[in-house]
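Researcher: Quick test of sequence recovery. Tokens follow.
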């Protein structure tokens, strides 16, 4: 298979305001003012960003069954570089050119240090085939996020309207309107139209 030729832009920017990158009934991804960003491009067009700064991920991964609620919500601070693909063109007015002071505030000695980290993240994401597999999400109205986790792997969030897929170290959560599947260390829960099936480990 041939991967799409995603590559980084030439300049590092900073967020001039707090930005909500994604918001839906099931969750939010946001970054704080001052967060560093670099474009991810495909065929000359901005298709996403890699961010470094202060962010937050909130997800409602609780499944309501006849026997009560199962699962727990995700609420994590994001302080390592992460990737977002999709809906990027309209965001550019929320960024301005980053200076050395902005880079230092985020722990980077220079621009090349951040670019090297961003290239490493993009390469890891590409090598695992996730850009190819989920290209449709970033080409339409959907979003693809890749967050670095404690095991040096990537947690993936795909969001497109009511459709949501979240894959983390010990959790897989899929939701679409009144249907949901939660797979965790405790087992698997499936719900559809108010009826549920629970398989415990």
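Model:
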């Amino acid at each position: 298979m041939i991967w799409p030729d995603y590559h980084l832009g030439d300049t590092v920017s900073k967020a001039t305001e707090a930005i909500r990158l994604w918001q839906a009934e099931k969750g939010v991804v946001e970054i704080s003012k001052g967060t560093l960003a670099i474009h991810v491009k495909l065929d000359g067009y901005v298709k996403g960003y890699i961010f470094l700064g202060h962010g937050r991920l909130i997800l409602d991964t609780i499944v309501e069954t006849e026997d009560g609620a199962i699962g727990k919500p995700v609420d994590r601070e994001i302080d390592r570089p992460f990737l977002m693909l999709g809906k990027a063109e309209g965001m550019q007015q929320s960024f301005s050119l980053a200076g050395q002071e902005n880079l230092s505030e985020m722990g980077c000695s220079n621009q090349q240090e951040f670019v090297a980290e961003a290239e490493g993240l993009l390469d890891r994401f590409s090598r695992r085939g996730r850009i190819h597999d989920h290209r449709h999400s970033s080409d339409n109205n959907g979003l693809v996020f890749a967050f670095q986790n404690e095991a040096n792997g990537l947690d993936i969030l795909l969001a497109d309207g009511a459709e949501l897929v979240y894959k983390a170290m010990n959790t897989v959560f899929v939701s679409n309107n009144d249907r949901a599947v939660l797979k965790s260390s405790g087992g698997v829960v499936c719900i559809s139209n108010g009826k549920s099936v629970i398989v415990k480990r």
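The longest strand covers residues 7-15.
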